[in-house]
Amino acid sequence: MKLSLKPVIYAIHFLLVGIVIFPLLFALVSSFRPLDDIFRYVSPISWRTFIPTSMTLEAYTNLFQLRGFGRVVFNTFFIAIVTVIFSIAINSMAAFAFAKFNFKGKIVIWALVMLSFMIPFEVISIPLYSLVNSMGWVDTYKGLIIPGIANGLVIFLFRQFFMDLPDSLLESARMEGASWWMIYTKIIMPLCKPVTISAGLLTFILQWESFMWPLIVTRSEEYRVIQVAISLATTEHATFWNEMFAATVLAVVVPVVLILVLQRYFVQGVASSGSKES
């Protein structure tokens, strides 16, 4: 008699899902608790651990009325969206050049692009800060946005997609008198919706979840972003756990919703970009 492994596999999957969901569920529930009740029902674990006996919106109200969280959310959205727009435009043009043009030093430059997204950000953070500081961009939107625009991984995704496009398509357009700019805007970009969404989603999440660089390059509350604001829920004298959990829930909801809505395009974009070898 052959034993089926499906029950075991399902059990492992449920266990892994529980490990992932447990802290998120606890954060969500705790964000609706009064500060004094956050850890009251943690040990032993019971139904009260996941169902608050007294619900309150105090944490969310304090975030927006006392902590200026509205400005924080605006900053994070603004920085992420502007970065996505410029990143898609600039990185896709660079990828088009790598995919369809031959020029001197192309192999060396492409090797540097590939190397750029393999180097940990911590390695370049200090030199990057020195450069940004010398240009007067510290504590500005430019300092937060411009360093995040060029992205070697995004160039790689676009380049792999463009290499699958037939050269005959471009040659036909050139024979009809189309300029390279017209080919890029009217023919190439409309064809790469999945990879554009994948690249945009990747860039958005990288900026939305960015912590180290905003912490380094900003000083005032005017340019504070959501990850930095969460870390500041811990003060010298107390930790506002309910506010920290509320801010964490807000920080998680946005990328999760985007991924759920755009996951089909994201998978298509990654799959199509990986269909051709470098």
From TrEMBL:
List residues traversing the bilayer: 7-29, 72-96, 108-132, 144-162, 183-206, 244-267
The protein's organism comes out as Paenibacillus validus
What start-end ranges are recorded for coiled-coil regions in this protein?
none
Concerning InterPro entries, the annotation shows: MetI-like, MetI-like_sf
Protein name stated in the entry: ABC transporter permease subunit
Q: Where is the ABC transmembrane type-1 domain?
A: 73-262
Which Gene Ontology cellular-component terms appear in the entry? plasma membrane
Name the keywords, alphabetized: Cell membrane, Membrane, Transmembrane, Transmembrane helix, Transport
Topology with respect to the bilayer: Multi-pass membrane protein
Check the UniProt entry and state the signal peptide residues, or none: none
Gene3D superfamilies annotated for this entry?
MetI-like
One Pfam annotation, family name? BPD_transp_1
Which family would the database say this protein is a member of?
Belongs to the binding-protein-dependent transport system permease family.
Biological process (GO) annotations held by this record are: transmembrane transport
Q: Where in the cell is it found?
A: Cell membrane
